Amino acid sequence: MNIESNFEFLDNGEIRGTDYQGRGRQTIRICNLNRDNLLFHRQRVIDIYFSNLKKLLDAYFKSVISKQQLKYFLITGFLKIQINSKPNKPFSALSKYIQNNFNSIIVPLFPTPKQRLIVQKSYREFQNGTLV
Prior knowledge:
mainly alpha
């Protein structure tokens, strides 16, 4: 079963079936993929990615780090998502989903339009290899 075409993750850690045949929903129900401990751990993964990026932006806006340092640390954070997308990593399906849907999972969590724009643009540049 292809995870990407059968499931989506929400920013609260919940997983939903998306395929028209209902196979994703059935798998979620049968395997109880939205049980409390899994929701907690998936939410924690999302929160860690978000809070690490938010701390970087906060430090940049307070002039604690330079623009070049911000880029370096953003690259490090984005690479962490990539690394955690490997099949041998815990919650790799969630990290892979975040990697492919960053703008709909992580970006909306930022409180200001300016923060959302910076993170969205930086992630796009990271994907294109132009965040240097």
